[in-house]
Input
Amino acid sequence: AQRVTQPEKLLSVFKGAPVELKCNYSYSGSPELFWYVQYSRQRLQLLLRHISRESIKGFTADLNKGETSFHLKKPFAQEEDSAMYYCALRTDDKIIFGKGTRLHILP
Amino acid sequence: EPEVTQTPSHQVTQMGQEVILRCVPISNHLYFYWYRQILGQKVEFLVSFYNNEISEKSEIFDDQFSVERPDGSNFTLKIRSTKLEDSAMYFCASSGTSGVSTGELFFGEGSRLTVL
Output
């Protein structure tokens, strides 16, 4: 079965502290994974994709096929990182999303 | 910067009524999608559309649902006879300018449907 699991509904982190948003997936094929973000009063948008291997807004994510994980990390949280984060998996002609993790950065 | 636009932003309807949600995808995109998000739940895939036909649909997308691209710019989702459980935020998305779909979906702001 194709599935994306984000175990944390809410993650509260102090400003300046490291952030890790967890994502695990289940997919029989070669996975293509993404992180999408929705800031307050804005539309859902792509943050980064695993094939790019890039850092966006200080965030990185490494695909670990052995652990079937694609955790999102940032070494130093900023207040503007507060948002809803969705891990997503591309399968055939669709993208499926996890339930999302709300990241709350504490001052 | 081009954006996906959706109308209406909010629609209230009586159970059993037909609803049409409209979307204008980004003009040179070739792949179109509808997703929905019931309050407090995850963003769920409904249907993908390419080359004037449905390419994939979920089990949620039953006979009560249909999609259409009537005029080359609009992409509509119709719910024939709404049920209470259809109350949700419906998101339209588009992607892909060549023959290959990418994973970067561009989303609209959503249409909130409330079924009474």
